[in-house]
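User: I've been trying to design a sequence by hand for this structure and keep getting stuck. Would you show me what you'd pick, starting by listing the structure so we're on the same page?

Assistant: Good idea, let's start from the same input. This is the structure you sent:
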């Protein structure tokens, strides 16, 4: 996971991250990330105008979260503080599985950002965005764990439990993908496949709880 906090600019053509010395463009940043041999990457760009960086940063297996929806939202952003809060607050774990995913952290921070503007009676000058590529941003982000809590955190130190956690994660991904395909499937087939996955998920969770 790479988190960027600070000030970004967009001149109508290129996004740049402001830094001491030469600013770094989104294209240059993407090139740096391409050199990292990771199957999955999460980039959280919390700067102003960060929405303009999405196109250059997009890659298969890379989830991009931005504080703004476009390069024209150029004011200072509140989103980063709530993203950090999501990594500290168990309330961000919306499904209570003791794993805070990138999707859960994003939704937590997104809601908090909206509430910030509403409570201060200000017009929102930023609209957070999540992009996972291939129109499956939520599915990809849901399987990217950014923080583990409680018993899951302890389980990651046990090889057998770690294998079960990986299995559970895989089943949850399959369930999410199946839900996306629901409209294109016969109802009976969808229900049967969903039931099979849910039963296997329950069995896996029971083994984890032992």
């Amino acid at each position: 996971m790479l988190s960027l906090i600070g000030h970004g600019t967009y001149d109508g053509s290129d996004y740049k991250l402001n830094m001491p010395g030469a600013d770094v463009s989104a294209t240059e940043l993407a090139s740096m990330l391409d050199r990292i041999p990771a199957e999955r990457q999460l980039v959280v760009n919390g700067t102003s105008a960060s929405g303009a960086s999405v196109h250059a940063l997009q890659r298969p297996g890379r989830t991009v979260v931005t504080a703004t929806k476009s390069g024209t939202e150029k004011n200072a952003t509140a989103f980063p503080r709530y993203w950090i809060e999501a990594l500290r607050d168990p309330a961000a774990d919306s499904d209570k599985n003791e794993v805070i995913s990138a999707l859960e952290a994003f939704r937590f921070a997104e809601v908090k950002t909206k509430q910030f503007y509403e409570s201060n009676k200000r017009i929102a000058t930023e609209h957070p965005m999540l992009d996972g590529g291939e129109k499956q941003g939520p599915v990809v982000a849901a399987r990217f764990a950014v923080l583990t809590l409680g018993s899951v955190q302890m389980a990651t130190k046990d090889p057998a439990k770690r294998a079960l956690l990986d299995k559970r994660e895989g089943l949850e991904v399959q369930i999410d993908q199946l839900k996306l395909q629901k409209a294109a499937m016969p109802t009976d087939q969808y229900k049967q496949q969903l039931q099979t996955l849910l039963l296997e998920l329950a069995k896996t969770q029971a083994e984890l709880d032992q």
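That's my pick for every position. To get oriented when you compare it with your attempt: Helices lie at 26-34, 54-57, 79-86, 102-119, 137-142, 150-155, 159-181, 187-209. The chain has two domains: 2-148, 158-209.
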